[in-house]
Design brief:
Blueprint (H helix, E strand, L loop, with lengths): L1 E9 L2 E7 L14 E2 L5 E2 L8 E5 L6 H14 L5 E6 L3 H11 L4 E5 L5 H6 L2 E2 L4 E2 L2 E5 L5 E6 L9 H9 L3
Parallel strand pairs: 5-6, 6-7
Antiparallel strand pairs: 1-2, 2-8, 3-4, 5-10, 8-9, 10-11
Length: 169
């Protein structure tokens, strides 16, 4: 497992990302089990088609809440599956979904093993949370877009993500 220090910060303080560093053009990791809000095992690669995977530190924070709500709104009517992954417990994710009414996003928990965080290289060692990211995966399972937000308290570049999404099949 690799470690990168300083590519992500929290309020200006450098953090360490651990895991494999994957890039645009690489295959999205397969066979990684996450948990749904009702504690059922789920792997993102079991879904076909174009996918947006956005990871957040915790849905219970204002920036994460806003990020997932924006993806929910902007994905409405698009032929794309959107997944929001965090280390929150599935119960907390279910509570958030009920309050947010996020019908266009499926929340998934990586809390048990941080396996997806490690596979994507977005596991924040110091906090045991996922970094704020956006990955777009094409219909062939390849990463077509990748953004790891440099400052944990900042939002991703939604315009760039949705522009990239329009060019993916």
């Amino acid at each position: 497992m690799t470690k990168q220090t300083g590519s992500v910060t929290f309020m200006g303080n450098p953090l360490t990302l651990v895991g494999s560093e994957i890039k645009v053009g690489d295959a999205f990791p397969v066979g990684i089990t996450l948990l749904t809000n009702d504690l059922k095992p789920f792997t993102i690669d079991q879904e076909s088609g174009v996918k947006v995977i956005t990871t957040v530190p915790s849905l219970d924070t204002p920036v994460c809440d806003m990020q997932v709500r924006k993806f929910n709104e902007r994905a409405a009517g698009l032929n794309v599956k959107v997944f929001a992954v965090s280390a929150d417990l599935p119960f907390a994710q279910a509570r958030w979904c009920g309050a947010a009414g996020a019908a266009n996003v499926k929340t998934l928990s990586d809390h048990a093993s941080m396996a997806l965080a490690d596979a994507l290289g977005v596991h924040i060692k110091e906090l045991r949370l996922l970094a704020r990211t956006v990955f777009i995966v094409d219909s062939k399972g390849k990463i077509a877009y990748r953004e790891i937000v440099g400052e944990v308290t900042s939002e991703p570049d939604y315009d760039a993500a949705f522009k990239a999404l329009k060019s993916v099949s």
